[in-house]
Amino acid sequence: MLTLAPDVRQAWLDRIRWIRIVDRLAENERIEPHERRFSRFMEDWRRLLSRGIVDPSCPFASELLAIRALWLRDASGPGSDLAEGRRGGDDMAARSLAAWDAYLLALADYHAPGLLIRTMKEHDTMLLRLSGHIFQLVPFLTKEHWDAAAEFGRLDQFFNNLRDMQEDADRGICYLPEEELARHGLTRAQVLSGRCIDTPGYRSLMQLWLDEIMPSLYARAAPFIDAHDLHPSLQMMKEWSLRRYARITRVFRATGFDPRRFPARYWAEVRRDLAERRQLCRAQPA
């Protein structure tokens, strides 16, 4: 990120900040629903989307104003028909706006208490609605790579869920679909408690996950992975992500699919890799 031109770096930092804000608000509302932080953000967002208005007293007025300037720039002012403005305006701005709105709706759905993923189809949809939409929000994406970016995002969410399996279980969240758990003789309660780890059914499920589901997601993401005409910052993001996926896979296999052992080893590898990269950068001539 530090090697990017200042304007390119700022574009990435803005999108990352917006995504982190709403992620944090949605997680906070799951833990403390009475605070309604995410719900209040959504009320402010709906007001902006329908009327072009940002309440200057809302906590995230600056972010909403930045979003309006970037994706709603065809709106003529408060009360304007934003939908009509988008139809006549920049297509990528309209696409990004729709992806952002869809991502907010996905956050509301997948942070709801008692979340239950029943089928593989629901699981596949969840992957797309979360990170699929995030990857359509990245700066410098073109129409040619729009659908491919969503598939790469679907792959990204698969690895996020794998990496965070223990953290999610500690919060009472299980993204593994009920039908696959049942097919392998497992229950959601066993996953959340960790009692599944030493069972043959869990091992066979994880082998399916890494040997069949993961390759199928890589295949769907291939158009983005194989693209050579991406913006340099997108190419950098893609290469970094692929290294991250390989690291998650390697550590998950090395720890015997045990999400309890995974975090310590994984984050130790992350710190080591970052230290090696910093050392390599220092060694390169200016």
UniProtKB/TrEMBL annotation:
GO terms for molecular function: transferase activity, transferring alkyl or aryl (other than methyl) groups. Gene3D superfamilies: Farnesyl Diphosphate Synthase. It holds the Pfam family SQS_PSY. This is Phytoene synthase.
